[in-house]
Design a protein that fits this description.
By secondary structure, the chain is mainly α. It contains six helices and two strands; from the N terminus they run ααααβααβ.
């Protein structure tokens, strides 16, 4: 994983203002933002880990846990709500025994 992190950081080495593209690249290559990645970025970009965690937690696009092999998406918009989207979501949660954002223990599904 360290090699993937290094590849993501290298084009932006020393550019503190490039944190978001680096985070996006790390997540694209590794699937998520690991503690190891945060530590490496902090050292290489001369930032504190707290600064990096502040950015990662601010944006919903970033995740700290490895995603499942299969992503399950359930529409909960207005039109889907009218057609039973919440019931589909409830059934998905019960069937997989997880909540949105969690991953099944076998790492197969991630709603």
């Amino acid at each position: 994983m360290q090699k993937l992190i290094d590849e993501a950081i290298k084009p932006y080495e020393g550019e503190k203002g490039s944190l978001i593209p680096i985070l996006q690249s790390v997540q694209e290559k590794c699937g998520y933002i690991s503690e190891e990645a945060v530590s490496t970025m902090a050292q290489r970009l001369k930032m504190s880990e707290h600064e990096i965690y502040g950015v990662v937690t601010f944006y919903a696009q970033f995740r700290f846990a490895k995603p499942g092999d299969h992503l399950v998406k359930v529409c909960l918009g207005t039109a889907c709500h009218v057609r039973g989207g919440e019931q589909v979501m409830d059934m998905t949660e019960r069937t997989l025994s997880i909540q949105p954002g969690e991953t099944t223990p076998d790492a197969a599904f991630n709603p």
